Amino acid sequence: MKHLSKAEIAIVKARILRGDRYVDIASDYRLNQGRLADLKFGRIHADVEPANLDDRRS
Questions:
Q1: Best CA proximity match to 50, nearest among 3, 17, 24
Q2: How far is CA 33 from CA 16, 45, 56, in A?
Q3: Are 44 and 35 in contact (CB under 8 A)?
Q4: Predicted structure pTM score
C-alpha cells in the first residue's frame, strides 16, 4: 500500500463512509480498491478514525 499519512487515511475512511465511489477514491490516492475495502472493514489502520468532512471538499 502506498504510504499515506494518518490524516489521509482518515479522509479516505470518511469518503468511504460518505459513499464516494471506490474508483474515485482509489484514483485520487493511487490505491487499489482492495486496500479501500481493507480500510472500510478495519483490516488495516483500524486505529484511525474517519475525518470530519463537513468543511472539506474532496
A1: 17
A2: 11, 15, 22
A3: yes
A4: 0.86
The residue type of 14 is A
Indicate the Cα dihedral angle 1, 21, 54, 40, nearest 10°. Answer: -50
Half-sphere exposure of 43 (CA within 13 A, CB side): 8
Average pLDDT by consecutive 10-residue portion of the chain (58 residues)? 88 96 94 93 96 75
Whole-angstrom Cα distance, residue 22 to residue 32? Answer: 9
Q: Which residue in this structure is represented by grid cell 486505529?
A: 47
